[in-house]
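Could someone model zinc ion with this protein?
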Amino acid sequence: MALMAGDAAKELALERIRILISSALKLARTSEIFADKQAHLAKKIAMRTRVRMDYDARQLYCKKCKKFIIPGKNSRVRVGGTNTKSIRITCIRCGHTYRKILQGSKVHE
Ligand SMILES: [Zn+2]
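Reply:
Sure, complex below.
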């Protein structure tokens, strides 16, 4: 991929997004509204700066209503069959169910 002048800005945006996501996850325990705001802001930054969020972060948004999904709080997580390496996540807000594939082992690059 060609490097452009905006790379430093993107790097910074990604950093801000990560901070927002992790604080959204922390806030989720106490305030869903605040968590939502942080998550929304993170998404806005990503769109405005056209950065691609981390895979894990992207999984935190409902594919349909685009809202922040708080694992175990406003979503239902269901593990598939015994050997299935996927879980099903249901967004409580819009009822959309989607599958998340789990990696068998964590691979560090
Ligand atoms: Zn939804």
